[in-house]
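Section 5.1 Outputs to date
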Amino acid sequence: MPRRRTTSSSSSTASSAPSAPRNRTPQPVRVRRRSFGDFVKAFLAFVVLAGLVVGVPFALAVTAGWPFPGGAPSLDWLQREITVSTFLHILTVIVWLAWAQFTACVLVEVKAALSGVGVPGRVPGSGPSQLLARQLVAALLLVGATAASLTPGLSQLGQSLEGNQKPSVAAAQQTPGIFAQQQEQAAATAGALAEQAGQAGQDAARADGGSSAAHGDTKYYRIQPPEGRHHDSLWEVAERHLGDGRRYKEIFELNKDRVQPDGSRLSEASLIRPGWIMEMPGDARGGELVEMPDEAPNVSEQVQQQISDYAKSGDHAQGSGGGDAQVSLPEQRPAPTPANPVTPATPVPGTGQEHATPAAGQAGDSFGLPEALLAAPLLAAGLLGALGRRRRQAMWQSALGAVGGRRGMEPPTPTGDAQDVQDALLVGADPEGVRLLDRSLRGLAASLTAESRPLPVVYAAWMSGNGDLHLQLAQPAGKPPAPWQQGQDQTFWMLARTDAEGYEEAETAAPYPGLVSLGTMDDSRLLLNLEAVPGIVSLGGTEADRAAVFASVAAELATNGWSDRMTITLVGFGDDLTPLAPNRIRHLDGFEDLFETMSAETRQRRGALGAAGHDSVLTGRTGPAQHTRWAPHLVLLAAQPSDDDALRLAELAADAGRLGIGYLVGTEGTDLPGAAWEMEITGAGRLLAPLLGLELDAQMLPAAQRRAVVELFTDADPGSGPGSDPEGGPGRPANAPPFLVDISEQGRPAVYARLVGSYEIIGLDTPDGERSALLHEALALLLLHREGVHPRVLSSALWPRGVTADVRDALLERLRAWLGSDPDGTPRLGTDATGRLTLAKSVVSDLDVLRSLYYEATQGRGVGSRQVRGRLLTDALVLVRGPLLADRPEGRYRWLTHEIVDAQLPLLVADTGLALSEFHLEKDRAEKAIEALTAALRTAPADERLWHELLRATHTTGDPGRLRVLAADLVARSGARGVPPRTEALLDELLPTWREGVSAAG
């Protein structure tokens, strides 16, 4: 059907519009040029149609004759014997009937294609015949503009006709790829997106529409048939005729549940069909619009009648609408009123921002910290936790001699961008949110297993502003297990934060390890389940913006706390992210390598699922089996594939959601062939997915921060650290303590804090009782970071739920006044060139002294003097009075979970005990060595080196009974894990009968 232009009455209405929308002219439709393959398909379709429609009857007429009898059959015909000839005649008649039915189907499809009106009528009993006719006619007319009016594509060959003619909602539920279009209803049901687009404009449009209807000039739009790959959508209709694609909600609301010319109804904003009629808001402008039929004489009589009938349904009853799975914003519960209200600038707990000082009053205090990480609490928590584990691993490897020449406990201190990124991680991280998310998901899986229920397919999770967790299901899955509750509809399961805090650790596999943060909308954070997406997710935008989103997704997947294990395959990444998680991340060179790898894995997973009797990976993660092989494999393809490669990948990903494989593919435009979901990242950091109803503040990891994060992990690797002193001092290790104390009599400090054991401060008056705890905690944090502490790091450590700048600054002033000044007038709390808070050298902790004593004994003056070494090591071990900050109040010092000092201190004490034991054994003082080792074991009871040296020292006493008792004690401490192999070998050497002694003691 030719495109229609609006009549003069439409133009007259334009002048009276209260507010002129942008872009009132129709936008050109992108039409794909016909390829050689299209002509080949058309030629083959023509040959097949000619053979079936013309060739079959010609062959039948020549070989079997016409099906019509020469005269009326007699009753004797019924009494004749059934011969082979009779049977063949019956078959011939059946073939003639099949040909007639197929020919009728072809005529119906050709008529619908040429007219472009509605959906083709159904030939009774046609079944697959009409579907085949539809595909052949579509292929034949593919090279012409009218071909696109045929709804099913060639890729649907083999589906049943009944499946294609089901109501749109039911069809969307059964066909995974259609879910990509279902999601546009999200904004229609939630309303948030349309309100952001401008509620005032919407009200004005509706008012104008009502006025127009009263004057008889209501406008209508007829959904156009597709052209090439382009299919008409309400978003594009709104963009062309209302000036803003986000106003598609107005069109949807005007036409929801109204009967269309083909008898179906509009229930999903994305599921529209060619030939449908859409009533438009009154301010709609541009071509392709028609007024009432009597004012549009150029419209065919059939369309006039359709519009007239449709106009009578204007006061239609609102049905139930969607109710199907959709990526939409969950309804928020009212936030509970706190007993002690905080200032408006204080962030609401649970938003992921409670670890960041509010923006109010902070604009000039950021000191260059990257905002991308400050606004990514789950990503920051994952990176911070993984970095801590990497540093602990490096220290243990160094302590065990795995890295020669780099023995010690101090990781390199980051500088420059790496230091800023580390501070941003400390400020932005929300480990409590990660812990609650992980426990909530595992608890849900455990509850469903206990009820013998499968895990539902989850497309997304929302962490809302009041701390609740909302799971968005692909389809209703019944009543959720307690304490989960039904959300805003049957596709939402909700868990309140207070209920999540009651969850304990659950011994079950992570149910949804493919969840990854994409951004925030209306104070709610969206986590998309990449492994459950029915096909490929495309990401458009500039190369730099796409890379920032890809890096954020890869980094969070590699380090998150709600996954047991997974594989992340990266293709087309410029920077190597492998150091973040070498066991999870792998890089491939190009698309061919990717396709070969994923084809093999797809076949393997299909076979494994079939052999295990599982429908999908979700059923394999619950129940007694809980196969770890059902961990997800997520593919991030940053380089845009060719159209052919994209289609190959889309075909491979057709079953990916069931297999636990997800694909995120970058594209320069927004039209990636075969993509199920399409997203776009803008230069302003907005992540748009119109057909999903999403417009987020995107979570990104820009190139500079990405390189700095990788640098932090690379420096933490014990094999990649520097091998020489930055200051060039001979023999000085690269990981020397950041702060050395003058341990002579002249170096007596003005303020001395005891941190190893109970917390005590010498040299300062006790502050006011109400503020004493905060001041003590702030001083402890500064003492553990002699390199300097960013003010925002300090405030987020003391107030994890957020604090205003004036409260933070007031505390710093009190802390500065409490610490006072040195005799020369220099404040003991200062600020360096980067704006970080630093302590003067006159403020010292016992941990500083312990580090300095050990360093001087092993690398300084003690190297050349045995007497000095023994005295320094003895003094160092005397300082150890227990664990770090042993009597800290409950609920405070939570920032210690980000620190590695809990691993540094035991290693330092163990090394000190080992060095002092060696010092005594050189003079055969076994009892002194045993005493030193026993003292060190009180602080580092898990250090295997101390037990080995204690066994050797006890062996030198020549008392087998004492050695046997020690062996029995060591075996008892080992518990069910058993004695470590190296310890077992040492016992075999020192006490061959130790197993007999242990058995007798048992």
